[in-house]
Write a structure and sequence with these properties.
2 domains; two-stranded antiparallel sheet; globular; 15 helices; Helicase, Ruva Protein, domain 3; 11 strands; alpha/beta
Length: 336
């Protein structure tokens, strides 16, 4: 093994050890600001370690903003919150050029960077802004760059978008198109807290000042984790299982199940299987394992598929939700 290979191996070993040692500390620091929501926190951590963007779905008042802000603090990343409104324009988030007068009286156009130039972007209530502004953000998510007046500006790395949305049944929303939803690695659902947790929230927020989470990682640490995650080994049978789960969700294909043909209008694409495998790698690393298991894939199926499977009018008429369709998929698709 060459000196360069030895150094790379030592770096990877240190990164793995750092993640394993920091897992409990992450939850301790987050618990200073967030009560409960352990499953939600785990899915967000997996998304960040995998380098993917995440969609958070839940009613207003469930501490989505506080959760994202606390995560950014733990990872010591530059944080920006963008409140999406019906009148928000693409230039409001990407930036714009203004006429700037220099010394000597010469005037030149100067680019003023928008709030998207940060490491962690909280796109709050993304489904309250029109499609034009949604598309501008989603293009930046995919390309990690923006183009203004023909000039390309590279976004800082690491770059994460954590977008919140209110349930679609609430008034004044613009549902994200399925093709744009597919850009998000996970769709994490926040529900109301149990009574004991809600009591603790009320006691905390109506008394003394809350403790602030302390940084545990740096931006360089996150980039190193991204590289290590992609090197986590995964057996071919696990990859095939992920592919079969995605393929089984597609209606009107050879061998598709009757309930899929009846309830599903559009199934998951190849990105779903990629998200299951990449998320499985991040989950394995977070739990201190050196390989991906079937259980890793199964545990991430709901947050990976719920925004990639579109149920049709028959499902709505029969009271069938996308969560029930995913449950049936788990029962349908064999492990081997």
């Amino acid at each position: 093994m060459t000196n360069e290979e030895t150094s790379a191996f030592e770096l990877e070993r240190r990164v793995v050890e750092q993640v394993m040692e920091s897992r409990d500390r992450i939850h301790v620091e987050l618990s200073k600001a967030i009560v409960g929501q352990r499953a939600v926190i785990e899915q967000l951590l997996i998304s960040l370690f995998a380098g993917g963007h995440c969609l958070l779905t839940g009613a207003p008042g469930l501490a989505k903003t506080l959760l994202v802000r606390s995560l950014a603090a733990i990872f010591h990343l530059d944080f920006q919150r963008i409140q999406f409104t019906p009148d928000l324009m693409p230039a409001d988030i990407l930036g714009t050029e203004i006429l700037h007068e220099q010394e000597g009286g010469e005037r030149r156009l100067k680019f003023i960077r928008g709030p998207i130039f940060a490491n962690v972007i909280l796109a709050d209530e993304i489904n309250r802004t029109p499609p034009k502004t949604q598309a501008a953000l989603l293009e930046a998510m995919q390309e990690h760059q923006v183009t203004i007046a023909g000039e390309t500006h590279i976004l800082d790395a690491p770059f994460f978008v954590l977008a919140t949305q209110n349930p679609i049944e609430m008034e004044g929303t613009y549902p994200l198109p399925e093709a744009q939803l597919d850009r998000f690695l996970f769709n994490v659902v926040l529900d109301y807290l149990p009574e004991d947790d809600e009591v603790e929230v009320i006691q905390r927020t109506t008394s003394s000042t809350l403790e602030q989470p302390q940084p545990l990682f740096s931006g360089e640490d996150i980039l190193a984790i991204h590289e290590v995650v992609r090197k986590v080994p995964v057996a071919e049978e696990v990859v095939r299982y992920a592919v079969r789960l995605a393929a089984a969700s597609r209606p009107h294909r050879e061998g598709s199940a009757d309930f899929i043909d009846r309830w599903v209008s559009w199934g998951a694409g190849t990105r779903a299987a990629q998200a299951l495998v990449l998320g499985g790698k991040a989950r394995a690393l977070l739990e201190g394992r050196s390989h991906v298991t079937i259980e890793d894939v199964q545990s991430l199926l709901h947050c990976t598929m719920r925004h990639r499977i579109l149920v049709g009018y028959r499902a709505e008429a029969e009271g069938v939700s996308v969560e029930q369709v995913i449950d049936r998929l788990l029962e349908l698709v064999p492990v081997a």
